[in-house]
Each structure stands twice: as C-alpha cells, then as structure tokens.
Amino acid sequence: MEDFNAWDPQKDTIIIVTKARDNKLVSFTIQLAEWLIFTPRFGKKYPFKVYVDGHLKNTERVRQLVHPAWQSQLKFWNPKLCRRQSNLFHLIITLGGDGTILFTSSLFQSHVPPIMPFHLGSLGFLAPFLFTSYRAELNNLFEGRLTNKAHRMRLSCTVYRFRPSPSSPTKRLQTADGTIKQQNNDRLVSTETDWVQRAYDRGLKGDRCQVDYSVVPAQTFQVLNEIVVDRGTSSNMSFLELFADDRHLTTVQADGLCIATATGSTAYSLSANGSLAHPDMMCTLVTPLCPHTLSFRPMLLPSTITIRIIVPFESRHTVHCRFDGRSTVEMNQGDHVKITMSPYPVYTYSASDVSNDWFSSVQTCLHWNIREPQKALENVDQKKNSALFKHTHDNKFSSEDEEDVGLAPWTEVSSVLNRDNANFGKQYLVDGNEETCWNSEQGLPQHILIDFPNSVSISSVAITFQGGFAGKKCVLVGSIENSPNDYNVEVSTVYPEDISSKQIFTFDPTEGLKRLKIVFEESTDFYGRITVYTLDVIGRSIV
C-alpha cells in the first residue's frame, strides 16, 4: 500500500496528464510544470523532473522554453512508457475531469502512482481540487499536510477465446435451454478450461453439443469504472450466461450487462438504475441494461466473487465488451470474460476526506434528491403592519405583492480565495446562479456582512454550502439603525450539516436590524475555507 503520511524527498518524478483535445489546458500544463521545476524544495534548486504529454513536444508553447533547466527537467511521456515503466513516476497530476482520470487508469495497467486530480473538465465527480489553488494544495502535499486518500478498487477483466480441437468430432443435438454442454475428453489444458467444463456440468442441464476444446486468454484490462457487455450493433437483444464463482446465476436476455466498481456506480451503472456505492466499499455491482423481464434487479456482490459472462453458442450474434468506455473487444459464441478484483488499485488524494468528497460530489454534481423545500403554513394575522421580504441570491427585497421595498443591499465578505474575485467573489452570492459560489481564503473566522436598505425583522436564513467547505458553527449578529457599526444584537447561532443542499434555520424574530453579520467560527474544511453557493435571509421589512 502507498505511504501517504509524508512526501519522501527522494520522490522526484511527476507526470502531468492533461485532458485531450483541449488546447486551453496546454498553458495550464506548462504553468504547472514551470512551478514544479523552478520552485526550490528539499534543498534542491530544481526539485522535480516533470513529464508532460509527448504530443506537446512540438507545440509553439514548448518550443519557446529556452532555459537550460527545461532541457534537463522537462520530459515527455507516451502510453508505452507508462505501461512499461510505471514505477518511474511518483505522482500523477491530472488536469481535466473524470474522463482524464479514466484515461490515466488505462495508461497504467499494473502499478498506478497516486493521483492528484485537478478539476478542469465537465463533471469533476472524481476531481475535488480546484486548479486555481494548485500551489497551496501541492504545497500541502509536499509538506505532509495532505494525506487523505481514496482507495479505488479496479476490476481485472480477461477475455478468453474458445478454441475447438481440430480433430474433435462435433455432435449437435436438440437443446433444452439454449446452451451447449462442452466436454473435453482429453486432459484439460488450463484451469479456466476446467472451470468452464465444471460450470456447465453443474449449472446447466439438457442434451448439448459434445466437443473437445480449450479456452485461451486473449486480452486483460484493468478498469476503474466498469466493463459493459452489450449487443453492439445488432438489433437483437443479448443472450448471455452469468456465473458467480462456480454458480450459474441466470441467463441474461437484455441489451447487456454492466459490471461496475463502487467508483463506477455513479457512471454507466447509475444510468441503468444501479445503486450508488461509497468508493471505500470493496464490491462489484451487477446491473442489467434494459432486461426483457420485470424481475431482473441490480445486485451488489462482494469483491471476492469471481464473475464470468459467457456467450453461448445459441446466441444469435456476437457481443461487444467495452472497458471503461474506451477499449472495445468483440466476443464470439463460445468466448467468455472473467472478472475479478484487480491487484492494482488506484489511489486518489482527497480534498477533505473520502466521505466528504463523495457526498459533496453526489449532491453538487448529480444533484441527488434536490428539490424546492415545502413551504411552511403562515398565519394571516401575523402580516399586519409589515411587509414580508426575502433577501435571496437574486438580490431583491420583495413584499408579498412582488413590489420592491428597497434597493439591493450592500454586501461584504471577509476574503476571497487567492483574491480571485472573477471566479470566487462576493457577487456570486447574489447573482441568481446556483452554479457559482463565494469561496473564502484559508483561516477562521470568515464572515458575510449584509447592509439592508430599511430596518428589518429577521426570522430565518437559508444557506447552501459546498460539502467539505461548510460552516460548522455560524453566529448571526446584527446592528440597529442608530449604531450600524456595533454588532451587539445576538440573532442566533446555528450549526449546519456538512452537505451541499440548501439548509434552512428558523429562530425567534429579531426586530429593527439595519445590518446582519454571519460569522463562520468553525469550518468542515481543515484549512478553514468556506464555500457558499446561495444565501437567503427571510423576514419582514419595517415600512
């Protein structure tokens, strides 16, 4: 197992895998490589050798690099180097999204160095780190402050080809259940051939073809997400035999089967109504694709079980085997694929911890179980002499008849991550876009200050954090009209959960406030960062 407790200064070789066909990431790649090479560390002037994609070697951006250190420290990788010399690299940095991580997994079909994934892609489910903070995150790694990691199981998938003996007579009989019993009258030539014979003898009944044969391993793939066996281009449904260890589970009549890891449970398997599985679970998900039955439900199996999928001779067509959506192999009648837990897992660093990263991704990327909250019932008598307002992310105060009762409030925040106001500034608290956010710098406490156009009575707040960067303890204090700079009115103290969905906190109304200050005294982030996507302040404007 990899040692994540401290960075070994002797580890001096880093590979950067950049999202393919995205030219804007070339400059980010060179920027990162330059920082890694030219930032002194561990008593070395040039501490790292950095490998980048060989396709960048002849680009104009790389040809402009003339410093002598570039010649000695900047190297270029290709798929053959990754496969044959995986132990050469000590760290993988990915710039892209989930597809880039899957591509990286395909490059390393044996040992995989730990991966530091920066989100520069589309979904970013597996990439919890923002590239805008790469210096801080990598400094934390090299200085031993970043040790959380996810152990992601892979599947080892071997395709076996059916090879009949040339001299073997074949006797074809009427079959009872659409499969063929295959029996070798000579000495078994391999363990897998022995298994095929025993499995057919024990699990399948009826008169079938008698033929001498062997099964020969053809190709092996290590997959991070899933292997999909489907009908390919055929218009007929797939006809497959599914085995778990020595037991025949079922005959599959469907578009196909998806065999996924816990990591892959949020990918193709999810689209086929498979269950979600935490990445720490060592399990295998068996999910049918459009089965032609009402009772073929997905299954969750222990990772110790060996799964085999056989294409019987009575299948009307061949099937396609797809490995992480990249490599495709056609399997003929008589072929099968054997699926086991790979001895080569993938380790990815986590921004906070594995659970926080995963729950946050489920909620923010997949919007798991997100809907508008049910509105509370309200007593009409409570509305006299005041107008209901809601200070929301769309930055409006509105009364019950939708008329504005004041100007948009002035808002202040304690800090902005990396001073990057363009991407993380306070304007994203009030822009009406739930995809943008205010992100604070490191350190506590952080705060948000709201200046109301009129005196208000506040009764509740609703806030949406990013999981892993939530305020664990939020103190709400206010000031009144005559003393706007003295925050001596205690409104409430709330304790949000570390989730990415909207949370509503209701408290006794506080009258006559001119300003509200929300102080985040504690954070679920180790470094004290706060990320807020939406903020609603609900109450009454005193008019």
TrEMBL record:
GO terms for molecular function: ATP binding; NAD+ kinase activity. GO terms for biological process: NAD+ metabolic process; NADP+ biosynthetic process. The keyword Transmembrane does not apply. InterPro entries: ATP-NAD_kinase_N, ATP-NAD_kinase_PpnK-typ_C, Galactose-bd-like_sf, NAD/diacylglycerol_kinase_sf, NADK. HAMAP family: NAD_kinase. Keywords: ATP-binding, Kinase, NAD, NADP, Nucleotide-binding, Transferase. It comes from the Eukaryota. This is F5/8 type C domain-containing protein. Belongs to the NAD kinase family.
